[in-house]
Amino acid sequence: MKSHGEQFSPVGSPPPSHVSARRLSYLVLFLIGLFLTSCTHTPAEPLEKQRQQLIHELETTLAGLQGAWTFEDGTTPWSSDIAQRYPTTPCDDVTTLSRGGQERVDISLFGPPFADLDSAVENVGGNWHARGFTVKVVIPIESGHPEITTNTPDGISLAFTANASGSSLSAKTGCADPATA
Question: Do 104 and 91 touch, CB atoms closer than 8 A?
Fold first, then answer.
């Protein structure tokens, strides 16, 4: 019988150093898989079609929220017309696994504070869930500044954060060649 704290090693199993090396290799493979599945892939849709999908997702999400929303400059009111002309940004970072020269539409909006964080998060998360999207809680409500995210079947990434001093809603497309704009 093993004493408390001593590791159990069945007969014929590798010594503990080999076990930890095997576990490390499994962990590395798991993390690589996690990284690859969380990366934004290059969708087949042209960038301007993705822009239209992004605007639709923002409008649909904002329809259920109260208050005025502005672009990230904090003064320009949300408008789908302005979003139509919003500049693209380069996708030249490691996390997208994109070829150089690709671009995406990335829009961040700022909104009002929410005194009732539960209602705000439930409103947005419920909206996304009702539309068939999987909602991920990144930062829980108990933190005082919750964040939820989702990815649409069209490849649009959405994130919503709220707290007592303000809120934000961001959306970004996948990467695409500017020629498809």
Answer: yes
Residue 2 above 70 pLDDT? Answer: no
Q: ∠ CA 119-83-105 to the nearest 5 degrees?
A: 90
Q: What is the CA radius of gyration of the chain?
A: 22
| Residue whose C-alpha is closest to residue 160's, from 69, 37, 27, 83 | 69
- Write down how long the chain is: 181
Q: Outline where 80-148 has alpha helix (H).
A: 80-85, 117-130
Write out pLDDT tens, residues 27-47. Answer: 444 434 333 334 444 445 889
**Could you tell me the pTM of the whole model?**
0.72
**CA-CA-CA-CA dihedral for 136, 65, 60, 125, to nearest 10:** 20
Q: Give 60-84 pLDDT, tens digit per residue.
A: 999 989 899 999 999 999 999 999 9
In the chain the beta strands, taken as DSSP E runs, fall at 70-71, 89-90, 103-104, 106-111, 136-139, 147-151, 157-163, 166-172
Structure tokens at 109: 């909006």
